Amino acid sequence: MQHSVPRDLLLTFFLFSSIFSASHACNQIDRNYLLSLPFNTASPSLNWSAPDCCNWESISCDHKGRVTHIWLPSRGLRGSVPPYIGNLTSLSHLNLSHNALSGCLPVRFFSSFNQLEVLDLSNNHLAGDISLLFSSNGSSDGWPSSIRLVDISNNDFNGIIQSWFLQRAQKLDKLNVSHNSFTGNIPNYLYMHSPFVRFLDFSFNDHSGHIPDRLGACSKLEIFRAGFNSLSGLIPHDIYSATRLEEISLPSNNLTGPISNDIVNLTKLTCLELYENELSGRLPVDIGKLNRLKHLFLDTNHLTGSLPPSLMNCTNLMTLKLGLNFFEGDISTLNFSRLHQLATLDLWNNKFTGSFPVSLSSCKSLRAIRIALNQLEGQIPPEVVQLKFLSFFSLGYNRLTNVTGAINILMRCKSLSVLLLTQNFLNEALPTEDSIVVPDGFRNLQYLGLAHCQLTGQLPIWLSKLKKLEILSLGFNRITGSIPGWLSTLPRLSCIKLSHNLIIGEFPKELCALPALISKHALMDNSSLIFSIFVTGNGTLFEFKSLYNVGPQISLENNGLSGNIPLEIGHLKQLYGLNLSHNYFSGNIPDQISELTNLERLDLSANQLSGKIPKSFISLHFLHEFSVANNNLCGAIPSGTQLQSFDASAYEGNPGLCGAPLPYDCGHILHSNKDIQDEEDGPAIRWSHISTILGLITGFWGVIGPLILSHNWRVVYFEFLENVKNRLCVMLRNVLG
User: Fold this and answer.
1) Which of 135, 165, 129, 132 is CA-nearest to residue 150?
2) Using an 8 Å Cβ cutoff, are 134 and 119 in contact?
3) Cβ distance 232 to 209 under 8 Å?
4) Residue 46 carries which DSSP code?
5) Are 42 and 78 within 8 A, CB to CB?
6) Is the CB of residue 182 less than 8 Å from the CB of residue 206?
7) Is the pLDDT score of 184 beyond 60?
8) Which of 448, 435, 436, 430 is nearest to 412 (CA)?
9) Tell me, what's the pLDDT at 462?
10) Which of the listed residues 20, 607, 611, 664 has the most CB atoms within 10 Å of its CB?
């Protein structure tokens, strides 16, 4: 009897274990539905071979063996979602995100799962009108009451998100419908039906109308995003009552009006993105009370006035972007010294005055500064050297002075990769080798921009030490001398802009050996820039987000260059743009230019080039800008090629050219050329005329002369004529009689 109790307990445990195991056995109907899923996988097949589907990879069941979880993100799934997946009525978690699923979801899809809590279909290619996914026998029940998370972002869904979709979604915590094609208003009953929602993302759709009122009733709301739509009107004042908000992101809409000072109620706010709208007025005077703010994006609006001093109390700021507004005031009076976390400062295209703020040198984390297109004066202070991480520095289009001092200071910023000082230092001299005090400076510089400064002097040899330089922009200055051959020693140089200067001499053959233009392995850095670079060309403003996008090019237009274009130019196979226009180049167009098969822009206009357009130009398939106007070219424009797609103005000013797209054919030109040739052979033509005239004169006086000078000749001559007349009369009578 002593051992009977343990034996009974063991038996009881075994029975309960059997019952428990049996209760967890996979429901066979659910198992069959899972096996029928038509998904194709690019990754290794799912391990769904065991008899019990509850033990399958990425599948979970409840205590009744009903499937509750299907968790298959990033599994390379392809195909469509079948209608019978809705028969898995116990499903609470469905995650098919980051796959390649396509097609429309089944009708009533969202209404099929009465116990669904988590639905993640994000990052697929699913499509269809969302309103069809809720209809249920004519009723509109919307999301099930159990729903907590819905993420259908990054698909191709369309239609209007009706307010009743959220009618039962009282437990909704997160809703992400971004990056689709939804239209209409943002649902305005969120505060009624989903009071506990924390995350709302409606961005990158086609929503219109106003931002919903009463968002402040969403007392749990932490993140609200609705950027990149067509929303209009004011920022609803009620939003400032949602005191748990950490992020407001509404960029690229049509919002108007001011930013209320009541925004300071949002003391937990860390990110405020309102850029690319039509907001106006001044910044809130107490904005400094947002002391948790890390990212403030207000650029591209109509904001005015001076920056409130309290802004400098936002000591956690990492990004401050206020560019493209109408801010004004002396910027040097602002004390940036407390913004130790500030990494990115963008104040470009405003009306700021004063000098460069010395207090910025205390912002040790600064990586990028852009204060271009303002009205700053004075010199760059030497304290800038203290910014050890400064990589992007743009102060173009101001009124700065002392270019030599600026170069000597900035040379010591060891992390500096982009330096844009366009249109400053007017009429000063380029720093020479003797004036440079840091011979090994600019060790990481990739882009040097000193265009539109009217700088004088020759290209200084210290440039040859910038071994990481990729773009040299010195156009629109008064640089003299010739193009130095040592430019070819810069291993990464692929963009040379020296247009509109006073440079003379020939196109150096050494330039045809630039390593970065010969081999694609040495091309520009393709990494994204901290700020975009804006470049004007042909009256158009171009935006470049990486140095690579600027493109390998040589721009030497509007100088005094002469001589032949070297045949070695065909070595520069990576060139995208070549502009040699408005110089004095002569000779034929080298056939070797056709070897530059990546060329997109070629301008040889306004030179003294002669001969024909090489037929080999038919291999330049990527050309979208081309001109050889105003030269001395002749012959037919190679036909049946891309060259006919350009306007006739690309060939004007060459009287010897013919064929499409010019309005006259080559027959006309050949006739004109014959006349021109006759004119050129004028002396020979005149001698043939003279010899004919002399022959006529000789014959005339050979007959008439003796008649005049000799009486006997006259008697004989007239007797001869009388005999001829009598014979003719006899012949006529015989014929007529």
Assistant:
1) 165
2) no
3) yes
4) P
5) yes
6) yes
7) yes
8) 436
9) 95
10) 607
SS3 592: helix
- Interval 289-331: pLDDT, tens: 999 999 999 999 999 999 999 999 999 999 999 999 999 999 9
Cβ neighbours of residue 252 under 8 Å, at least 6 residues apart?
227, 228, 229, 275, 276, 277
State both tokens at 354: 């004063």
What pTM value is reported for the model? 0.84
Would you state the structure tokens that stand for residue 461, as one six-digit string? 């040899």
Give the residue carrying structure tokens 């002469």.
562
Query: 100 falls in which pLDDT band (50, 70, 90)?
Result: very high
Beta strand 540-546 with 560-564 is unpaired
Nearest to 63, CA basis, from 92, 94, 21: 21
User: Identity (one letter) of the amino acid at 561?
Assistant: L
Q: Which residue has the tokens 């005015």?
A: 304
User: What values do phi and psi take at 67, rounded to 5?
Assistant: -70, 125
DSSP 612: P
Q: Classify residue 429 by its DSSP letter.
A: B
For residues 178 and 228, what is the distance between their CA atoms, to the nearest angstrom?
Answer: 10
Question: How many alpha carbons lie under 13 Å from residue 403 in its C-beta half-sphere?
Answer: 25
The 3-state DSSP class for residue 110 equals helix
Say whether pLDDT at 135 is over 60: no
β-pairing, 156-160 vs 125-129, is: parallel
Q: What is the pLDDT of residues 653-693, one digit of tens each?
A: 999 999 999 998 887 554 554 444 444 444 444 444 444 44
pLDDT mean across residues, the chain: 86
C-alpha distances (whole Å) from 448 to each of 445, 472, 499, 528 are 7, 5, 15, 17
| Strand ranges, E, within 488-548 | 495-497, 504-505, 528-537, 540-546
Of all residues in the chain, the percent with pLDDT exceeding 70 is 84
Summarised one tens digit per residue, pLDDT across range 398-417 is: 999 999 999 999 999 999 99
Which one, of 176, 175, 179, lies nearest residue 205 by Cα?
179
Listed residue (534, 527, 348) closest to 451, CA to CA: 534
- In the chain, what is the greatest distance between 2 CA atoms, to the nearest angstrom? 186
- Give the span between the Cα atoms of 212 and 253, in whole angstroms: 14
CA distance 448 to 437: 18
Residue with token string 């001011």: 258
Cα(704)–Cα(371) distance, integer angstroms: 100
Question: Which positions ≥6 away from 152 have C-beta within 8 Å?
Answer: 119, 121, 122, 126, 176, 177, 180
The residue count of the chain comes to 737
Q: Which residues pair with 159 in a beta bridge?
A: 182
On the CB side of 475, CA atoms within 13 Å amount to 16
Angle (nearest 5°) at CA 200 between 198 and 206: 175
Radius of gyration of the chain (CA): 42
Report the distance separating Cα 149 and Cα 172, nearest Å: 6
Pairing of strands 77-79, 93-95: unpaired
Instruction: Evaluate whether 538 touches 577 at the Cβ level (below 8 Å).
Output: no
- Residue type for 497, please? K
Query: With contact defined as beta carbons under 8 Å apart, do 274 and 297 qualify?
Result: yes
CB atoms within 10 A of CB 394: 23
Cα 158 to Cα 79, 429, 485, 569, distances in angstroms: 20, 60, 60, 53
Among residues 567, 620, 613, the alpha carbon closest in space to that of 598 is found at: 620
For residue 432, the model assigns a pLDDT of 93
Q: What is the pLDDT of residue 136?
A: 47
pLDDT for position 701: 45
Q: What ranges in 96-222 are assigned the alpha helix state H?
A: 190-193
Q: Are 585 and 565 in contact (CB under 8 A)?
A: yes
Sequence-distant (≥ 6) Cβ neighbours of residue 3 within 8 angstroms = none
Distances (CA, A) of 46 to 42, 58, 78, 287: 11, 9, 13, 54
Q: CA-CA distance, 489 to 472, in Å (whole number)?
A: 14
